[in-house]
Amino acid sequence: MKHTLLIVPGLGDSTAGHWQDSWLQHFPNTKKVVQDNWNQPQIKDWLHNLDTTIKAIETPIVIVAHSLAVSLVAHWSQQNDTSKIVGALLVAPADVESSEHTPEEIWNFAPIPMNQLKYPSIVITSSNDPYISVERAEFLSKNWGSQFYNVGPKGHLNLASQLGLWEEGQEILQSLILSIKENQ
């Protein structure tokens, strides 16, 4: 079955050099959610843009969310019909409930929904992510019913992490896609 890989960037966008941007260029059938204000995100606006993008896609969707976008996807999934979503890769979630870990401009995404997701998902974190503790990322993955991966000390898995095409992430994505195909 043909699916669309939906890239959902977080705060500041995933620009040239970020693995999400590399995946956007590398994989066929890939789309990206574009936000009006990447640096002062408002959850209502971001939810609207995510929903509009999803509604415009006709094939089943595998979401690839990074950082703040992980909370965005959790909020969207709680409020909308998720039947088009066949899976989600939730990378480096930012703990929007923690003033210790995240900047004030993203706190309006709190509280993070804790409902189990209605589609297969994988949460990936790094052991030294400045925006969330490993324990908190694992707690979120358990609540969402997601598989959990700690990829070791690689920062926020963003542009500064210099992951290029992030082959390790591609392997985890492929395991998600295989599990989706097996369960159809």
Automatic annotation (TrEMBL):
Its EC number is 3.-.-.-. One of its GO terms (molecular function) is hydrolase activity. This is Alpha/beta hydrolase. It comes from the Bacteria. Keywords: Hydrolase. InterPro entries: AB_hydrolase_fold, RBBP9/YdeN. Pfam families: Ser_hydrolase (PF06821).
